[in-house]
Amino acid sequence: MSENRGERSDSVVPDMAEPATKKRKVEVPEEDEDEDTPSVFNPRKKLCPYLDTINRQLLDFDFEKLCSVSLTRINVYACLVCGKYFQGRGTNTHAYTHSVAEAHHVFLNLHTLRFYCLPDNYEIIDTSLDDIKYVLNPTFTISDIRGLDKGNMKYSRTVDGTTLYLPGVVGLNNIKRNDYCNVVLQALAHVAPLRDYFLSEKNYAKIKRPPGDSIFTLVQRFGELMRKMWNPRNFKAHVSPHEMLQAVVLWSNKQFQITEQGDPIDFLSWFLHTLHKAMKGTKKPDSSIIYKSFLGEMKIYTRKIPPTELDDTQKALLMATDEYQEKVEDSNFLYLTCDLPPPPLFIDEFRENIIPQVNLYQLLSKFNGVSEKEYKTYKDNFMKRFEITKLPPFIILYIKRFTKNTFFLEKNPTIVNFPIKNVDFGDILTAKYRGIIKRTKYSLIANIVHDGEPGKGTYRSHIFHKGSNTWYEMQDLHVIDTLPQMITLTESYIQIYELQDD
């Protein structure tokens, strides 16, 4: 019978053979105890002789808060000596058993952020433990947030003292094949309004949501990841997005996996729309921080093309009908899709392939309200032109490199020539909206690149860190500074531009 009780957590009803007093002790919920009034069951002591056994280098709070034995999420404690998670702290619980078997005595409740010594079961109150509490749950004041992009940004040192890192420029662990998610998360972490919003948890803590609306977990996990990435007191120079990605896998119905390569633009589109929805965003432009940052507006002009086999008279008759008249539709966008021209099919006179190049403004001409592009369906053809009517504070460009045909996926290797600063989107506005929209110059802040073959390959990102005025190349855990000139030589896939101040 003692063996069965050894597997019991705090929430399980105790054996009826035990004394009544012992049953009451085991059933007391730890979270409901009075924080100010000491009890016989949970006496408080300010001094603990085991604090020097804590090993900060082994502590990692980035992974799911699960008991390593029972895999439960209820009443989970972290052993601060070995870093493992265990449930409960009462007699016969997994944490209690671990403390006795391994002589590990200092534990942290991952929910209440309170420290305890086991098996003696008293709470530890010591300010020297505040750094551990801060790593588990970093917090930022308004002045902290305002100082992130100023030029006095300082390097931080890891707990072992061997590595320097800049808050915001930290590697993300690639659990298996999630580099396509990492580059998007690293890029979004440098969109200042989005970052500032999620660094302060009170901004979204009061959002009203119906009971059982667990999709809000995605918002909370993204906020936790932002705070960890910008934490100036991290124990290590990298962060694992494990909890964030677990929420992504769950709420995308496994559309996006940790173990399989995906497409960053698909993930970015799904993630922004799902965050907007989870924060109770509506169709209004200012209904969420997502729309405030990325939502632009355009008019789409569509006209139907007559079948090519008809003669001129029949075409003229069709063009006079309502079905073939040009139609105008008001539309919103979170990103703009830029189409690359097809690469040359033949090698040049020197028997060598020349890597084709195209100017960014040539790609953007698609949205000048004049250029038309043909779109085909299974039975009809349409000509469309796009006229931008409102520019958002941050413009996301998706450079369409991959095309699927009947047999395989093809990649267009064309290099896009683009300026890092002073990209004037006013050049693609029609005269009407050029007079309405006064600020049109943007600077690049993030550039996502695909390297390798289509369907395989890897992704990396270039990030502009305003606090140090430096560009960094980030590929999972690898972070190095880079020159702006090197960014323009890459096969850009997704870019984020920020509207410049007057």
3D structure, described in words:
It is a single chain. With 502 residues, the protein is α+β, with helices and mostly antiparallel strands. It has 3 domains: 56-132, Zinc/RING finger domain, C3HC4 (zinc finger) (Herpes Virus-1), CATH 3.30.40.10; 134-285, Cysteine proteinases (Cathepsin B, Chain A); 291-499, Cathepsin B, Chain A, CATH 3.90.70. It is 25% helix and 24% strand. The strands form 7 sheets. Strands 13, 17, 21, 22, 23, 24, 25 and 26 form an 8-stranded mixed β-sheet that branches. Strands 1-6-5-4-2-3 form a 6-stranded mixed β-sheet, covered by helices on one side. Strands 12-11-16-15 form a 4-stranded antiparallel β-sheet, with no helix packed on it. Strand 4 and strand 5 form a beta hairpin. Helix 6 (179-188) packs across helix 11 (264-278) and helix 9 runs antiparallel to helix 10.
What would you say about this model in short?
With 502 residues, the chain is an alpha+beta fold. Helices cover 25% and strands 24% of the residues.
- Report how far the terminal alpha carbons are from each other: 75 Å
Fourth-level CATH superfamily of the largest domain:
Cysteine proteinases
As a percent range, the share of strand residues is: 15-25%
Question: How many structural domains in the coordinates?
Answer: 3
Rounded to an integer, what's the Rg over CA atoms? 28 Å
What is the CATH topology classification name of the largest domain? Cathepsin B, Chain A
The second-level CATH architecture of the largest domain is: Alpha-Beta Complex
